[in-house]
Amino acid sequence: MATDTQTRNKEIVAQFCTTFSTGDVDAILDYFAADALWHITGSIATSGDYDMVAFREFVTGVGQIAEGGAITFTYVDSIAEGDRVAAEITSTAVFVNGRTYSNEYSWHVEIRDGKIWRLREYQDTAHTVAVLAP
Hints:
The chain has helices at 4-20, 25-29, 52-65, 125-132; strands at residues 32-40, 48-50, 72-81, 84-94, 100-112, 115-123. It is of the alpha+beta class. It has one domain (4-132): Nuclear Transport Factor 2, Chain: A (Roll). It starts with a helix and ends with a helix. The mean pLDDT is 97.
């Protein structure tokens, strides 16, 4: 049986997906602790660690290449234990290069004081490279 904390943390992740889909950078960053870190796994150009300064630049850049100014993230499901949430997420967007971005993710999220403190993202990096290639 899920605790109130686990339920709340799962709701934070689900609500974050909805907010990210708006492209509102300030609202997106409001979900994060000041010392948060987003890590994208893999060895492609977008892989690595993003503190909130770098993440602001990253999200702003995504808004410039996605028609409508954002990638739409859809929360599928999650499990939670303590302050950790493992979530299945999908995304879709049409980029200005005319290609459709449609990816699947596993997000491992750590919540502290109601804010995302760590997010580790696993995705289909081959798809990302194919869609973003010149």
